[in-house]
Amino acid sequence: MFLIDTNIFLELLLDQKRAEECEQLLGKIANGDIEAVVTSFTIHAVEAILNNSKLVLTFLRNIENSLGLSIYDTTIDDQQAVAILMSEKELDFDDCLQYYVAKKLGAEAIVSFDKHFNELDIPRKEPKEILDKLKR
What we know:
CATH class: Alpha Beta
Largest sheet: 5 strands, parallel
Strand order of the largest sheet: 3-2-1-4-5
Strand content: 5-15%
Low-confidence stretches: none
Structural class: alpha/beta
Number of domains: 1
CATH topology: Rossmann fold
Shape: globular
Distance between the termini: 18 Å
Radius of gyration: 14 Å
Number of strands: 5
CATH architecture: 3-Layer(aba) Sandwich
């Protein structure tokens, strides 16, 4: 199981340079070929950044219909634990939240382009790495 970071969704939805590999990975998750989790924090962040009703609806419908994707709703206790962990891991709140949830759920890796995750005890993977591994 992988934790999908916010930037993977944004890369695709904003049609940035690595959108294609994100689309392929999210497609495999949508089909149920890969098991993944996304935090409710990520969903809200994507909604706020998109700030476009049509794009937000498309995003939410894709999340809802994705067979291999589950949503983790953080509790106040989770968020307090993240606030405490921030200084230890030297991460900002959103990155620390992703790390905390990945650790709590036993994720194999955090899927992200964010290099802040490189120095942690959970590996960071980029979509292409996961897709290449599936081809083998």
